[in-house]
Amino acid sequence: MQEKKYPRSRLGNSQEIIEMLDPLVKEWFFTKFNNFSESQLHGVINIYKRRNILISAPTGSGKTLTSFLSILNYLVSLAKKNELEEKVYCVYSSPLKALNSDIYVNLIKPLEEIKKLAKIKNIKLQEIRIGLRTGDTSSKDKAKMLKNPPHIFITTPEGLAIALTSKKFMDLFYGVEFVIIDEIHSLGNKRGVYLSLSLERLESISKITPVRIGLSATIAPLDEVANFLVGSDRECLIAEVKNSKKMEINVLTGVEDLIDTDKYNLHSSLYTLIDKLIQDHKTTVIFTNTRSATERVVNHLKDMFPDNYIENIEAHHSSLSKEHRFSVEERLRKGELKVVVTSTSLELGIDIGYIDLVILLGSPKSSARALQRIGRAGHKLHDISKGRFIVVDRDDLVESTILAKEGIERKIDKIHIPENSLDVLSQQVYGMAIQKIWDIGDMFNLIKKSYCYKNLSRDDFMGVISYLAGEYELEHRNVYAKIWYDDETKQIGKKGKLARVIYMTNIGTIPEESFITVVIASGERKDHKVGVIDEGFLEKMKPGDVFVLGGKKYQFLYTRGMKAYVRVAIKRNPTIPSWFSEQLPLSFDSALEINKFRKLLDEKFGKNKKEKEIIGFIKEYAYTGDKVAKAIYNYFYEQFRYAKIPHKNQLVVENYKGDKNYVVFHSLYGRRVNDALSRALAYLMAQKVGRDIEIGISDNGFYFAGERLPIDEAIKFLNEKNIRKILDEAIAKTEVLKRRFRHCAARSLMILRNYKGQTKSVGKQQMRSFLLMSAINKISKDFPILKEARREVLEDLMDIKNAKQVIKWIKNKDIEIKKINTKLPSPFALNLVLQGYSDLLKVEDRIEFLKRMHAAVIKEIKENEIKK
Amino acid sequence: MKLKNKIKFLNDCLLVGDVLVIGDMHLGYEEQFQKAIFPGLHKKQIIKKIEGVFDYLEKKKINIREIVILGDLKHDFGNISNREWREVLEFLDYLKNKTYKITVIKGNHDKVLIPILRKRDIELRDFYIREGVCFLHGDGLFEQCLNRQTDVLVFGHLHPAIIIADKYKSEKFKCFLKGRWKSKTVYVLPSFTPVSYGFDLLDIDETNKNKKEHFIIENKELKNFEVIIYNNKDKKEYNFGKLRELID
């Protein structure tokens, strides 16, 4: 499919803007600023001329004021003439409540300053009102808002959807003129899908076609994001403000040698390095990727350097309470903290004051994310952003080095926007039916205008209508019809008196999860916390099951409240795969960059280039220092000498017999692609041999372990066309599909989290969805919500699209499979094999297994008797 | 023929002549430990399982004269609800229909079982001896059980189960234990409850230390018992040899 291309905006000149501005606003602006920023030169005039625009600019470049300057100017000019109407002129949506509060304050302040200025000049101004509505807004404030409608309405995607379904609010939306979507780069998920439909609904209500303004940090591909912003058949300009902010990016290791240093020294030198960096700077933010690592880093720093860290260090991640997070942000702004350790939660644009160093502990897994994080340092446009990657192992070293290179060269990986999500669609169709009676054709056309549904088939749409109209006969499962559809008149409307209440209290797309602390039950380390697992993971465990957490094996004993009690189980094999992990996956684009780098090095080794020359090349190619270049050289040299270097055109498949029979695929395409590839292959093999196969998956590859592994046949059989069907079958009985189904069932309101004032626990939701799923499996495999759960697993969780791409490369020989045999896992395979397995594909029947094991035991007993 | 020579395994139950012995059932387990989402589900599953047993007996034309329940019929009687009362009664009525006599052995969980059993004229005993076979729960021992006339002891309480694993696969199975103890032949039955497999015997040394409810036979002696898994599909028993060998 041809991607739509949009024109780039022309850089306007200051004079144009100055002429456009109302004298009052102009005066205010120049008391605050000397000049217009680049993004203002792009945006202000275009918004004034009511053109849709996507503004992609780095943090601190004045994006927010760009989007609001024309609007404020417009409202002030109306207020002066006493022409301000009682309606919402502008809707502003951002995904973060915290950011909303920021914006609120940042708008109120300029308005008051302008008001003051007007007073001095004796100019009469109507009051310009700003309204904030999030989940935290009190009903008193909401009522106030209806009485005195805000001219600028600040909200979240969920808040907007609620407003769109509330009768009184909708009346205020009759003439919306501007819509601002902030942080659009963080909407490559179902929240974004949801918002895209809300925008279409808003546009259909408003008699004026609102101008759409999208604000984004550095993101790619811009045309796709612009298309997402405006939907089908609308014009849009793209303003790409290049990041002129100076960046100083370096990769550091705590030790010279990441492999031969023992764990203790590695650990202590790592923290010594981190401490030194923190002490050399004023305020540091450390990103760790995971919540558990965040806590660990804080504790280690406090333990190792008790004098340096007392009141001046804090953790910030999504599992912490809202109060705690707010207070950390507040103390950061006031400059009271020396260092904050965070998982990913400080990535988005909330104001965190002056940061002079960002440390990335462990690869950020994508170049966009790396830039976003490093951009948090030196928030002002002309400050230097200082970022330090600190690597923890050799794979991390290579990955971070390439990500740093991409960051320095400002290469951005592509965003993934889900399409045709039928669960989100169900929720929105229900919302629309509550709003009014619709003609089905009109409804379908409106939905198709959204970028995320431009390819929606009539069949899928009608499937959703059938589900909502109760045609799948799930009433005895307590899934009641939510709408009526009349095939004669082609009309759709809501069903049930409680429709609006049910809708409002169950709205949203973010699945509910909760976390369980894992605690040692007895012995020396009694009550010692070993980590957290999510509730979904716990649900699958039976007492006695063995699972892996933080690289160690534990046996689950029992739960009490929010704690799971375990004992250390060193001898046992895990009985539960650690499928649910909060690790971020490596982006496909960055993975390809690493493969390219691997190829360049392989060529140099192949040509017997000297060590000095190769190290020189690495330094130049990846902008690294001696130490890092030498460490990379050593890693590749070992792989080259011992085995083969896998790269862009060479997929190394390594056979090795350890305690088990392993086949390692060095397919560095990121976990999402590897997940799809490995499961499809494992499923094909398991079907053939009828035995269980163990699968281990990481960003750098995957491995299988099993008695018989006919990989050649599986690779030969797998192709771009059949992979979807194979994966559909392979995931049919997995826990991950069950869990995703629960999320989809909640989003499509099959399972109501809140009903008549009662809240359903995650556990109950899971149980309900489990029963629903088995009931649905009997009715139809094509039930829209089940179909959506499968799509979500294959397209959003895994990456079937790029998996197909890889298969294509293999089939047309762009990638050649090279098989090797090793006695020990090759250096590149080591981390993957050590990490342990991610899933066990179970095909062998319990009873068959019992019989086979019994035969083996009998044989052993007989042999022992003969010996005696 | 003496009863001790007429002992057969049958889907987690033991058939002793015309006596059907059923292990710990823990009715109401779900109310206590799992979130009670589907009231009555556990009872339904137990009935389904026991129906399977009776269907088989009928096919083989075996008449059951007596049913012995080896204790822990009801999981716990903290606050027993009306519904739970009804459930236990319904269950007993179901069994009464299938046999002439029911004997219930007192388990460590059966603290207030007497009123329920009185309603149906069923006796609750600490132990029960019939024709040289002694049935008891397993949390304690009684002098009479060890007298000369007794050849066989049948226990519940332990919920034996075992994890069978090779390099690639690991599965848990309910199992019987059979061995000699205090000059008697001993059988330990797996729990009958379908909702959990039971206590993994491979953990016997680790877990029993912390376990409050102790089993009357000591670990070192239990390890000499044979582990037997009964496969309900082909109605065959699979003897895995001595527990000691499996642990090592």
What features would you describe in this structure?
The complex is a heterodimer of chains A (868) and B (248). With 868 residues, chain A is of the alpha/beta class. Chain A has 5 domains: 14-240, P-loop containing nucleotide triphosphate hydrolases (Rossmann fold, 3-Layer(aba) Sandwich), CATH 3.40.50; 246-408, Rossmann fold; 422-510 and 736-789, no CATH class; 515-539 and 541-568, no CATH class; 643-730 and 790-868, no CATH class. Helix content of chain A is 47%, strand content 16%. In chain A, the strands form 6 sheets. Chain A has a 7-stranded parallel β-sheet with strand order 3-4-2-5-6-1-7, with helices on both faces. In chain A, strands 8-13-12-9-11-10 form a 6-stranded parallel β-sheet, sandwiched between helices. In chain A, α15 packs across α23 (626-642), α24 packs across α25 (711-717) and α24 (671-689) crosses α30 (800-811). The longest helix of chain A is centred in the N-terminal third of the chain and has 24 residues, at 97-120. Chain A starts with 13 loop residues before the first helix and ends with a helix. Chain B is of the alpha/beta class. Chain B has one domain (3-247): Purple Acid Phosphatase, chain A, domain 2 (4-Layer Sandwich). In chain B, 24% of the residues lie in helices and 29% in strands. Chain B is built from 7 helices and 16 strands. Chain B has helices spanning 29-33, 41-59, 82-98, 114-119, 204-207, 219-222, 243-247; strands spanning 7-10, 13-16, 19-22, 66-69, 101-105, 123-125, 127-130, 133-136, 152-155, 160-165, 170-174, 176-181, 184-188, 199-200, 226-231, 236-242. In chain B, strands 7-8-9-13-12-15-16 form a 7-stranded mixed β-sheet. Chain B has a 6-stranded mixed β-sheet with strand order 1-2-3-4-5-6. In chain B, strands 11-10-14 form a 3-stranded mixed β-sheet, with no helix packed on it. In chain B, β7 and β8 form a beta hairpin. The longest helix of chain B is centred in the N-terminal third of the chain and has 19 residues, at 41-59. The radius of gyration of chain B is 17 Å and the shape is globular. Mean pLDDT of chain B is 84; it is low at 33-37. Classes of the chains: A alpha/beta (868), B alpha/beta (248). The A-B interface holds A 521-522, 542-544, 567, 572-573, 575, 659-660, 691-694, 705-707, 761, 763-764, 767-768, 840, 842, 844, 846-847, 849-851, 853-854, 856-857, 861 and B 35, 37-38, 163-173, 196-197, 200, 203, 206, 210, 229, 231, 233-234, 238-241, 245.
